[in-house]
Design brief:
The complex is a heterodimer of chains A (about 375) and B (about 280). Chain A is of the alpha+beta class and about 375 residues long. Chain A has two domains: about 240 residues, no CATH class; about 120 residues, no CATH class. Chain A is about 30% helix and about 25% strand. Chain A contains 14 helices and 16 strands. Chain A has an eight-stranded mixed β-sheet, with helices on both faces. In chain A, strands 8-7-14-13 form a four-stranded antiparallel β-sheet, with no helix packed on it. Chain B folds into two domains: about 100 residues, Translation factors (Elongation Factor Tu (Ef-tu), domain 3, Beta Barrel), CATH 2.40.30; about 170 residues, 3-Layer(aba) Sandwich (Rossmann fold), CATH 3.40.50. Chain B is built from seven helices and 15 strands. In chain B, strand 11, helix 5 and strand 12 form a beta-alpha-beta unit. The longest helix of chain B has 13 residues. The chains are: A alpha+beta (about 375), B alpha/beta (about 280). The interface between A and B is large, with 68 and 51 residues.
Chain lengths: ~375, ~280
């Protein structure tokens, strides 16, 4: 293991051969982690439990465009040769459904108890830089805005992350515009870059925390050389040069804040189905609602939280009628929140440039184009 | 970015409910009830006038309700509830001794500290009087700390007026002006008919030295604020109380977003200057 100065300070580095990568899972499992990573499911890249390195989407890549997603074969056996699928790590830290409280009637009053925290901490393998940025954004929402969300905190505590520097850019990726990738920045315990050169298939590891360095010390491998790190830089630079999309964020926050009466909202509302896909695939969208489940005799109930979306009519309902009933008002709420009022609330953009909302929109609405059009309607109609 | 041993990751009980039981019930109107609750844990529920609580009915759900009164006559907290949905209907049909869960108080209250030494104008519409009731009580309890005091109140009909006993008592005092109007009146109504803003010219206040607090339909608050501004009261001295859908009360669920603000956390009381572009706006 070799200690070098990286972009985030002193870091441990090591080059691990493809054949030895299973040791990473073994080391994490030995520490009691529940290990999760990308797998192929339902013809998509989906995060789930990893029992071995062979569970990874070996030799797969994805083709993404607005409204289009296809898994296709690569001509090599890369383990991380794709970008992001419809699921994000959000579903583990902020689950689509979770129980907030269990309530029972006891001696004429209500007794509420919160469920126990999960017993195992998570280790996420293959976190993309845009996704680490998304976790950082949800940390602010759920942990650093005056209150602490128990469900999120219970799952975030002890999280170990292995990031991946992106070697390919997806058709809807624009992390360069949002300054979140394609290289892993702060927040990772370990990051890796996959290098395939003929029969030579290895991973250049960099540590981002003490714990990461401890795990890295347990892996077999050789010291990273300057040439290895230059190769990492070249891979990341090549990815950055091939972004499928870009979003000019100059003045965008201000333009959207003043966009309430923009005629372009009517144009996008003609296409938007208010299906909520964009909000469900978004790794930062955090809105939720709570529903009650109760026993037939009414003696026990649970308060269950599930993801909600600002695209539903019920979302803004006040005394039974919605404040935002038109499609345009709901699309406007989503986009202005994501790209403008998020700054007022949480001091950052709510967008990390992962491109999911573009890929998974059934009518191919493109956030980058719509944002441009709201800012400069004359340019859009030209 | 946070590390794995970040102290903000300590377990917390933000959503945990405190058990309360119904203690007193007073029917205000055909669809509105004022209930007093007693804390089962014996602990008080301190609050600032203008704040709200989340109240839970077993198996039905949870809603935000403005606090209409504090500890008095054996009650620990008083809520005035209008039956408009499943949860509020369940609350309005509760009997003494029934159990609920309450958490809070949450949100920003009325600018009572800012109002010290100033004339105070209170303008309420409909059930908007409920969150203003503890403010009026505070002003009367500390009457010498304030200048002239006036309450203008409008409801749809005389039978929609809340807190009739208190209104009569307040009207009988010489240190607060109380004016009431209704939109529609039967033949036995001898009071005013018309919108609340008509009453503004009736009450005395020094525009350069006034703090106003208003709660009611958005269009009513907008007109009141505009009229006050026209008479010389600065927009920063006019407080409005907003209402939006809320599921959590603490800025997590996202429902109550109102421009850049979360009504639950940044409101419900805002100064008019901060929300004037949004108030009563289309689909905000």
């Amino acid at each position: 293991m070799r200690w070098l100065y990286g972009p985030e300070g002193l870091m441990a580095t090591k080059v691990v051969d493809r054949a030895d990568l299973g040791n990473l899972l073994d080391a994490l499992r030995a520490e009691g982690f529940s290990v999760l990573g990308p797998t192929v499911r339902d013809k998509t890249i989906t995060y789930g439990p990893l029992t071995s390195i062979e569970d990874l989407p070996i030799g797969w890549t994805d083709e993404q465009e607005a409204g289009t997603y296809r898994l296709v074969r690569r001509d090599d056996d890369a383990l991380f040769g794709y970008v992001v699928g419809p699921n994000s790590w959000k579903r583990f830290l902020f689950p689509p459904r979770s129980t907030l409280l269990n309530i029972e009637r006891r001696d004429g009053s209500l007794v509420a108890t919160a469920p126990d925290a999960p017993s195992q901490a998570y280790a996420f393998i293959g976190v993309r830089p845009c996704e680490m940025a998304a976790i950082g954004i949800q940390d602010v929402v759920f942990l650093r805005s005056g209150h602490t969300d128990r469900t999120y905190a219970d799952r975030r505590r002890g999280l170990f992350t292995v990031g991946v520097n992106c070697a390919v850019a997806g058709g809807t990726c624009f992390c360069v515009s949002m300054e979140t990738g394609p290289r892993c920045g702060a927040g990772f315990d370990l990051s890796l870059t996959e290098v395939i050169d003929g029969d030579d298939h290895h991973f250049v590891f960099e540590s981002g925390s003490e714990h990461g360095a401890e795990i890295l010390a347990q892996l077999p491998g050789r010291d990273a050389t300057v040439a290895d790190l230059e190769q990492v830089d070249a891979i990341v630079a090549n990815t950055a040069a091939h972004m499928g999309r870009q979003l000019d964020t100059t003045g965008l926050r201000e333009a959207l804040a003043a966009s309430h009466d923009s005629p372009h909202w009517d144009v996008v509302a003609d296409r938007c189905l208010t299906c909520t896909n964009c909000t469900l695939v978004c790794p930062t969208c955090f809105c939720s609602t709570v529903e009650d489940d109760s026993s037939l005799d009414g003696s026990v109930a649970s308060r269950n939280r599930r993801w909600d979306s600002c695209f539903t009519l019920d979302f803004s309902a006040l005394h039974g009628s919605p404040v935002r009933s038109s499609t345009k008002s709901r699309y406007r709420q989503w986009m202005t929140h994501k790209l403008s009022s998020w700054f007022d609330q949480f001091e950052s953009s709510g967008c990390v440039g992962c491109g999911r909302c573009i890929t998974w929109c059934p009518v191919a609405i493109d956030l980058t184009k719509e944002a441009d059009a709201v800012r400069s309607p004359e340019k859009a109609s030209a | 970015m946070i590390g794995t041993n970040d102290p903000t990751l300590r377990p917390v009980e933000e959503m945990l409910l405190r058990p309360f039981t119904v203690h007193s019930i007073r029917r205000e109107t055909i669809d509105t009830v004022t209930l007093g609750f007693v804390a089962a844990d014996g602990q008080p529920l301190p609050f600032e006038p203008g704040q709200f609580v989340m109240i839970y009915v077993m198996g039905v759900g949870e809603v935000p309700i403005s606090i209409a009164g504090g500890a008095a006559a054996g009650d620990d907290v008083v809520l005035t509830v209008r039956a408009v949905g499943a949860v509020t209907n369940a609350i309005c049909s509760m009997q003494a001794g029934d159990a609920v869960g309450i958490r809070g108080p949450y949100g920003m209250g009325w600018p009572l500290a800012q109002a010290r030494g100033h004339d105070v104008v209170i303008a309420a519409g409909g059930i908007g009087l409920a969150p203003l009731r503890p403010a009026v009580m505070h002003l009367l309890d500390h009457r010498r700390d304030f200048g002239s005091l006036s309450l203008i109140y409008g409801a749809r009909t005389p039978s929609d007026l809340l807190y009739l006993d208190e209104l009569r008592r307040w009207r009988a005092r010489f240190d607060i002006e109380v004016e009431v109007t209704v939109d529609r009146a039967p033949s036995d109504w001898y009071g005013d008919v018309g919108v609340v803003t008509n009453l503004l010219g009736r009450v005395a206040f020094d525009p350069d030295n006034t703090v106003a607090m208003t709660c009611g339909p958005e269009i009513m608050m907008k007109v009141v604020a505009r009229e006050l501004e026209r008479s010389g009261v600065p927009a920063t001295a006019v407080a409005v109380s907003m209402e939006r859908n809320m599921k959590c009360g603490i800025g997590f669920c996202g429902h109550c977003q109102y421009g850049p603000d979360f009504v639950c956390r940044d409101g419900p009381v805002f100064d008019y200057d901060a929300v004037r572009a949004r108030l009563s706006g289309e689909e905000r």
